[in-house]
Specification:
By secondary structure, the chain is of the alpha/beta class. The chain has one domain: TIM Barrel. It contains 13 helices and seven strands. A seven-stranded parallel sheet has the order 1-2-3-4-5-6-7, covered by helices on one side. Strand 3, helix 6 and strand 4 form a beta-alpha-beta unit. The longest helix has 18 residues. The radius of gyration is 19 Å and the shape is globular. The C terminus is likely disordered. GO terms for molecular function: deoxyribose-phosphate aldolase activity.
Length: 310
């Protein structure tokens, strides 16, 4: 069967996306007014959903330790929660585990499976997952084989996700679609269903690696939220969601949370069902909380540096 025929068959199963309808819906999310106590609650919720991240070739154990300290105590002068997780390369997992210790709610996530390209033999990708989990990773962020998906090799895509899911053991799995390389809303919806069909409840689908030109947008986030909703209504299985890359301001984060509330409901407004893969976002959330507390904005340098967002 050709790639075109395979895709048409899958699209008939999951249904196409009304792009105009998606764009109209997400435009309305940006018009919602959130003020006072509700805004503070939303800002703190967003802090609790951040995966604080460093994914650089120059990462060191010391840099990871500093990141972990910020994850545990984002800002001493503010009453705000810890972040959800720190996210690091597999080689840094053991250093993150040492810095966080065992008795913490902050989880360790690790990108694996030849992140960000996914262009390595499956055996190598699975070995990376096994090593990261063995060193203490609570969560694995994998990338799908976009080449196989675009070639219509959907069974291969699913089989590889299943193999990674098995290698994760008890660890949570986040499946990165890399939406910019899937190119269309129909492809994003189809890939979402391929992944969800072989995931466990509360595993994640995730927009992006943050290493391409286009990352999380309200549009592609909405396509994936609606896929999660439709899959849940059909199966009763709740899949979690993580937009990643490009979300840098508190205002953006609140728009994304409005989308979650209006599409999936309050059951997804927690960090077991929704995350932000963004690190520079954290400081803007803290600035906004400080402003709500004191009435004045602090300069960016008032807060410790976070890693680059992804």
């Amino acid at each position: 069967m050709s790639a075109t025929a395979s895709f048409r068959r899958l699209l008939n199963e999951v249904g196409p996306v009304d792009q105009v309808g998606i764009d109209e819906r997400v435009a309305k999310f940006t018009t919602r007014s959130i003020k006072k106590a509700s805004k503070v609650k939303g800002l703190k919720l967003a802090v609790s959903m951040v995966d604080l991240t460093t994914l650089e070739g120059k990462d060191t154990p010391g840099k990871v330790a500093s990141l972990c300290q910020k994850a545990l105590a984002p800002h001493d002068g503010l009453d705000c929660p810890q972040v959800a997780a720190v996210c690091v390369y597999p080689a840094m997992v053991k250093h993150a585990r040492r810095a966080l210790g065992e008795d913490t709610a902050v989880r360790i996530a690790s990108v694996a499976t030849a992140f960000p390209s996914g262009q390595a033999p499956l055996k190598t990708r699975l070995a990376e997952v096994t090593a990261a989990v063995g060193d203490g990773a609570d969560e694995i962020d994998m990338v799908i084989n976009r080449g196989a998906f675009l070639a219509g090799e959907f069974q291969r895509v699913q089989d590889e996700i299943v193999a990674v899911r098995e290698a994760c053991g008890e660890a949570t799995l986040k499946v990165i679609l890399e939406v910019s390389e899937l190119e269309t809303y129909d492809n994003i919806r189809a890939a979402s269903f391929l992944a969800m069909r072989v995931l466990r409840p509360d595993d994640f689908i995730k927009t992006s690696t943050g290493k391409t030109s286009l990352n999380a947008t309200l549009g592609n986030n909405q396509v994936m939220l609606e896929a999660i909703r439709d899959f849940y209504l059909a199966t009763g299985v709740a899949i979690a969601m993580k937009p990643a890359g490009g979300i840098r301001t508190a205002k953006q984060a609140l728009h994304f949370l409005v989308a979650v509330k209006e599409t999936l409901g309050d059951e997804w407004l927690n960090n077991t069902r929704y995350r932000f893969g963004a690190s520079s976002l954290l400081n803007d959330l803290l600035r906004q909380l400080e402003k709500e507390k004191t009435g004045a904005y602090q300069a960016p340098y008032y807060f410790s540096e976070a890693a680059e967002s992804y």
